[in-house]
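Lab intake sheet, docking and co-folding queue.

SAMPLE TYPE: protein with bound small molecule
LIGAND NAME: fe (ii) ion
LIGAND FORMAT: SMILES
REQUESTED OUTPUT: full 3D complex as structure tokens
PRIORITY: normal
SUBMITTED BY: R.K., bench team

The fields below were copied directly from the construct record.
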Amino acid sequence: MTDVEAPSTAEMNADIKLITDNAERIFTWKYDRERDQLITLYNKAMASQWDSINDLDWATDVDPEFLVATTQRDNVTVELARAAKDLPGSPFKNWGEKEFTQLSIESLKATLSQFMHGEQGAMMVAAKIVETVPWIDAKYYAATQTMDEARHTEVFAKYLHTKLGDPYPMSPYLEEQIQVLVEDDRWDISYLGMQIIIESLALAAFGQMLRVTEEPLLKKLLRYVLSDEARHVAFGILSLSELYENLTSAELLDRQEFMAENTIRNRTRSTTPEIWERMGVSAKEATPFLMEAASTLDRSYFTGFQTAFFSKLVPNTRKLGLLDANDGHLRKLWGEAGMLEWEFADNTADDYDTYDAVAADRAAATTGV
Ligand SMILES: [Fe+2]
Ligand SMILES: [Fe+2]
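RESULT FIELD (auto-filled):
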């Protein structure tokens, strides 16, 4: 008899979530290499694989207070709580620097937790693409992406676990986004939702954190994750632009609606309410004060982040031909939402190589620079 009991069904279910994938798996007999750009991308992916154990220095001592002093410098949640402190009846009225620093740490943990959960979602969607895409070059590439996403999930989980403490649950917004992509029976929708929307979003979020953080382990981790992500977005653009050249207007309209639905109409991203519980304030109590503070600061909750996101998303979507199909249907919708300002920013199919920090570090090591 062992002293460890098998988990009950209820315990098992608390640790997992079941999602049904409705897409058909495709086995192809065509092994000929036909897509030069995907071959190039696959070769780069193989050459730029990095090692989560040996390429990152996990012995780095991370001081959470030092970490948030730079990484969270412009954190909106903390800024709003500070502004809400002096409102009448504020739940933050007795807070001092200690509490605001702790909020900053919790807020960073919540963000890194969403990165971790999102990466697991990306791993599942990349694996789904391996199964559902009809082209051998794309199956090969998606297999490398699946490995990349495993490494990303692993490093965010390890950073949280060894340096910061307990992660937060997945936000309902992100959970719903990923569930829809895993369930969908159209193979290109997984690509469109993950490679074009969520990964453009990841490029923006990781890039924003990389620009401000001075903690060396997180910095290197983000540089390496970003260099993979840029390749993933390029993979989506190169594959889908070929497919979309041959779809009917009705099929393209469907994809344009998907883009509008998942960008404009979902612009309000939910935060992680559990942060407030850990800070001893209920989310319900905190929210009206944060909203009021937001109106007095005259600052939209996610402006900086949205700018970074749209500057990737819009040129990438343009490159797919989805802006102008059906008499510019998506161009009209995004134009009304003020998103076209970024139409001619660099698209990731053309600039992904500039992100390759792994290749840059290896070249520097070889030449001794
Ligand atoms: Fe990733
Ligand atoms: Fe990715």
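REVIEWER NOTE: Residues 119, 122, 149, 152, 229 surround fe (ii) ion (ligand 1) (CB under 6 Å).
SIGN-OFF: pending second check by T.M.
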